[in-house]
Design goal:
Layout lengths: L10 H19 L8 H24 L3 H27 L7 H22 L4 H21 L5 H31 L14
């Protein structure tokens, strides 16, 4: 008889893929690294995006809707799409890419992130808090790119993304260690509500 292979929990790896892709993008956006850093950023975006997508597919195979959906959505829209955008900017050699296009994408994800924010309350208070920060950051960035809000909201949104990413690194470490040791080494809090 053939032995069935169980899939391991890929959520921690997917979250780290998200953090490895988005953190350099935010640092570039904040101007901490000059535009000459864009080519290496493309590598981080593509590899981080692929890691999220693979982790999302595995998590979907395991039946984990709560982690597979954001890993797949953010893997494609927040990492692979910007990588393609950076490649296009290099290819067209400085041609203007209207920020309103990205702004629309950010608003679409921000609307969906409201559902993610609510759903994360089924996991923990800390994750619920982080998803609230993510949603606020997406709204600020998207509305700024659309010209509805000023430049200050763009900077605030970028800093909020860094806070979100730092928190998600902690969540990834907690998921990994807590599952590996089969006890809570790094707490992420009780759920906000139950089903």
């Amino acid at each position: 008889m053939e032995k069935e292979t169980a899939w391991a929990n890929p959520s921690a790896a997917g979250i780290i893929g998200l953090c490895c892709a988005i953190t350099p993008l935010v640092i570039l956006k904040l101007g901490w690294v000059g535009p000459e850093g864009a080519p290496i950023l493309i590598g981080w975006l593509i590899t981080g995006g692929l890691l999220q997508i693979v982790a999302g597919i595995i998590e979907a195979r395991r039946g984990g809707l709560l982690f597979s959906t954001p890993l797949l959505i953010l893997g494609f829209t927040a990492t692979i799409a910007p990588a393609i955008g950076e490649l296009v900017k290099i290819w067209i050699k400085g041609g203007a890419v209207p920020p309103t296009l990205s702004g629309v994408g950010f608003i679409v994800i921000a609307i969906w992130a409201i559902a993610l924010f609510v759903a994360s309350g089924l996991v923990s208070k800390f994750l619920f808090f982080l998803m609230g920060i993510l949603d606020l950051a997406l709204w600020l960035l998207g509305l700024s790119m659309l010209g509805v809000l000023g430049q200050g909201s763009d900077m605030l949104g970028s800093y909020l993304l860094l806070v979100f990413l730092a928190g998600m690194i902690y969540v990834a470490c907690a998921l990994f260690l807590n599952e590996l040791f089969e006890k809570e080494l790094l707490p992420i809090g009780k759920p906000v509500f139950t089903k």
